[in-house]
């Protein structure tokens, strides 16, 4: 396994998914499409999709043995060097598949969905904090596989009363990994401390804080750039942003300056290891006075994505912060679709915007002022009314 490398070479991959009895085919197809976007983001992977109906995933090896054999044969035929399983697997399921591949003397590598996301993260992580968070997530997810050791360690650990060099190696590896984890966690704590101090200082300076949140690729960075005129990376890729960037935003009506942050995008079934690892980055979100959720209305599934985002907001304990819903990319919609989106805009008391075409962004600023400075707005309104009457 070559999990350390982060420069992708051109690969041929088979992507495998299963449909369970309670699942609708459409759901699985869109899950597949998302994985295709992830593959596109990672770059350099051509792929073949296989979906199988099953009552449940195999507890031992996720894929049934005969299906796995079939996939390996297909792999030979199309010269695939990667098998991606579109779910989060247990370590032992991955080990079991690797073991069969080894027995059959095949060269194909196995990744699950988390492996793929982590590979993308390792391409995108830029700052010291993001790199450390990623390293932690990798150790937690890959375990010994990080050093290309999987099958052999799982075999060594197997069996009650196994003793000898094998067991010792497993123990050495476990000890080494937990030592590494502790070093990374200590470093992250220090960086987190710095971040906390910055936050406290800002709060002391009386700045209100806003975080832009939302599903990956919704247009958060675009909105951040258009509102604040500060350049950040905008790309038609999943997880283009991994770090939180904060800048000042001047609100002209109330003449107030607030702080606004662009944050990492969310994705459905975000593995807990990743949420935990990126919690300190999301601290900015937890400490905000207002969350702005950007929604990509050109995405057929935008409503269910609002729900995924909300689940994660709940997970990081930020559910009591007021949320402003911005229905983005309306420049891409036809009349019929706009009418449909409008219903949801009303339900969520949101605003239809286009970060790209600068549609309704003045309205967004006004709404932010109403939410963050209601007293100021109220007294300004009273003054206006008075001057009109006199
Ligand atoms: N047509 C259109 N495209 C948009 C709009 N807003 C963003 N985009 C495009 O959508 C893609 C994603 O935009 P980003 O701003 O990078 O999205 P993000 O939410 O920050 O994505 P991650 O950081 O990857 O989570 C880019 O190709 C943008 O140009 C919009 O209002 N209209
Ligand atoms: Mg972004």
- Average pLDDT works out at 84
C-alpha-based Rg, rounded: 24 Å
State which percent range the strand residues make up: 15-25%
Largest sheet: 6 strands, mixed
Number of helices in the DSSP assignment: 14
Order of helices and strands: EHEHEHEHHHHEHEEHHEHEHEHH
CATH superfamily annotation of the largest domain: P-loop containing nucleotide triphosphate hydrolases
Number of strands: 10
- CATH class identity of the largest domain: Alpha Beta
* Major sheet strand order: 6-7-5-8-9-10
State the share of residues found in helices, binned by percent: 40-55%
State the low-pLDDT regions, or none: 1-7, 156-164
Shape: globular
Instruction: Give the count of structural domains.
Output: 2
What separation lies between the terminal Cα atoms? 79 Å
Q: Class by helix and strand content?
A: alpha/beta
Level-2 CATH architecture of the largest domain: 3-Layer(aba) Sandwich
> Ligands in the structure?
guanosine-5'-triphosphate, magnesium ion
Would you write up a description of this structure?
The chain is an alpha/beta fold. The protein is built from 14 helices and 10 strands. It binds guanosine-5'-triphosphate and magnesium ion.
What's a concise summary of this model?
The protein is an alpha/beta fold and 390 residues long.
Fold topology:
Layout: E1 11-19, H1 25-42, E2 45-53, H2 65-78, E3 82-85, H3 91-103, E4 109-112, H4 113-124, H5 128-142, H6 151-157, H7 165-204, E5 209-214, H8 220-228, E6 245-251, E7 256-262, H9 272-277, H10 279-286, E8 290-296, H11 302-315, E9 323-328, H12 335-347, E10 351-352, H13 361-372, H14 374-389
Parallel strand pairs: 1-2, 1-3, 3-4, 5-7, 5-8, 8-9, 9-10
Antiparallel strand pairs: 6-7
Helix pairs in contact: 1-4, 4-5, 5-7, 6-7, 7-10
The structure holds guanosine-5'-triphosphate (GTP) and magnesium ion.
